[in-house]
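Bug: token stream looks shifted between consecutive jobs. Job 1:
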Amino acid sequence: MNLRPNNSSHPASPTELLHSFRTLNPTSPRLSWYGPDAERVEFSGRVLDNWVAKTANYLADELDAEPGTVVALDVPLHWRSLVWLLATWAVGATASTTPTRASAGSVPDIVATTDPAGAHEQFAAAVPAPLIVAVALPALQMRWLGELPPRTLDYSGDVRAHADEFFADDSPTPAHIAWQHGSAATSYERLLPDVQQEPDSDAQAPQRVLLQVREGWDVVVPAALKIWAAGGSVVLLDTDVEPTDHLRTSENITLG
């Protein structure tokens, strides 16, 4: 999927971005997460690419996701939701971070959720009903703990069985919607910034940037894509984690 001419080393599509994760300093951190209960998770470029590839293969092989599929992310802003976004774009589908409604014309094909019981009840009368996937957030949780509603899939229990590399069978058109958030719709050709044309971009070394969940999807997601496209890395803090000077120093934060 080559959405615009790319005469620089900066990725112009999700496929090129994932390629940069595994080829541009692949052992260096690309995403660090600070979550509840002192949880800290760090992903090198190679490991982040592996997580995205496994999730993309899960979407394609088990959920039949492809260009035109709408994947609703009923999950909080989190490292897992960023993985789901990247995986959805890898298969060429549309990711929606807008609250879902079981009304005519707004039923997604897939709902990834941290509340599978609520999603099952919400879409019980929908025809056709979406595929509901339970997503456990803790990094060390290998499966969903507790009972799942009927016909609900367990992402954490199933995703690790999938391959570490992903190759898409089809590509979206440049005008296809990649991300729907609120009233804003972002096409694939507008998803990644043209870093080459930004002032002083060539003069700056890759940044280690602090982002906070409290800033919201519409700030964090575009910022993370811009940082990654420029070869940098993201440190993402949950709402309960304070951005202290000690944290900034220990994480070698250069911006934010």
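Job 2, same session, no restart:
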Amino acid sequence: MTDKLTVSVLGTGIMGAAMARNLVRAGHAVRVWNRTRAKAEPLASQGARVAGTPAEAVEGADVVLTMLHDGPAALDVMRRAAPALRSGAAWVQSTTAGAEAVGELAAFAHEHGLVFFDAPVLGTRDPAEAGRLLVLAAGPGEHRHTVAPVFDAVGARTVWTGEDGAAGTATRLKLVANSWVIAATAAAGETLALARALGVDPQSFFDAIGGGPLDMGYLRVKSGLILEDRLTPPQFAVGTAAKDARLIVEAGERHGVRLDVAAASAERLERAAAQGHADEDMAAAYFASFGPAGRPSA
């Protein structure tokens, strides 16, 4: 293939590992690194090369893709990779870093001669594994041909939000979208918790709203994870959702907007994490409704 690339994926959690697998399937030469190497090792049998350090992973890469916990983590890892970064390489920054952090990451890219793309994704484990993510991207038009094969491998569609990755327009759109996802998930959990407390069969609620404007596929999906005890492996983990909720609240505060639902959702997610649900699907915020132990009464 004429557009075969050497792609370095830094961060192989739920999303990063899935993206790396799809890049391998698309025929690219893929190198992976993760802070906990054991999480990256399974990718070796699937065609990726596991690197011991960020610098080893990025040496000679055409594209570096970061999918890490947050903005400070992405900056720390890229600083560790700096000695081996190739000037002119593209940096696809897919970590949900927050609007303020994007500027710091873009400044690092400029200092090291990297072409910076602000490129968070929408989607969870299943669409990531299927290569059906929605890529939200901002970056210079003259270099988009370089990253297009990467976006095509990991996503079903790319939505371009601007020419300047440093402006964070893609990340801002991601925060807006995540604010809806987090609010809807919190509402689903509270609805089921109230139904349990009042002795209402959840199915009677679903029957009542079925087919009408109040019905919603996402409600049924997240409710199913709770009612059928399918919270692991997570589609999107409680701990990660809590981080994103805080980024949303902070973004609102910086722009003079009070986001009460996002703030309450962040508290619920953090409470669920403290109860031991951090690595379960974000729907497990349901348990935050039931006291310190997070267990509903019989």
